[in-house]
Amino acid sequence: MNFKITEKIEEKDRSEIFQGLLEYNLARIEDRNPKELGIYLEDEQGRKLAGLIGETHGNWLMVKFLWVDESLRGRHIGSRILGEAEIEARKRGCKYAFLDTFSFQAPDFYKKHGYREVFALEEYPLTGKRYYLTKTL
């Protein structure tokens, strides 16, 4: 056996590791059916101006990305999108939500919407913070 250390991860390597973990997890996890969730604001040409990418899995909504074009910020579009995601998550049976955000992004925005900080990585990646937040839906 040999350990290999690399800075370049090949797709084959990523797939082998992921498949090994997936096989292990699927034999043990209670809910094997995560569902993607996308909510988008588009202009007349179909160009994305704002949106949320996430998934629901069991009791949880996970927000992966929430973005609003800078020209539209301050118009409560992010709040509306987040609210729609939470409504849809409740329809899917979710009781909780979680997400992470950097200190230069939107921790106060999420706290204003009822999320509470459960953990923060200090000095991430060097001098900032990465916050992990949850909310009871």
TrEMBL record:
InterPro entries: Acyl_CoA_acyltransferase, GNAT_dom. The keyword Transferase applies. It comes from the Bacteria. PROSITE patterns: GNAT (PS51186). It holds the Pfam family Acetyltransf_7. The keyword Transferase applies. Residues 1-137 form the N-acetyltransferase domain. Keywords: Transferase. GO terms for molecular function: acyltransferase activity, transferring groups other than amino-acyl groups. Gene3D superfamilies: 3.40.630.30. This is Acetyltransferase (GNAT) family protein. It comes from Hungatella effluvii.
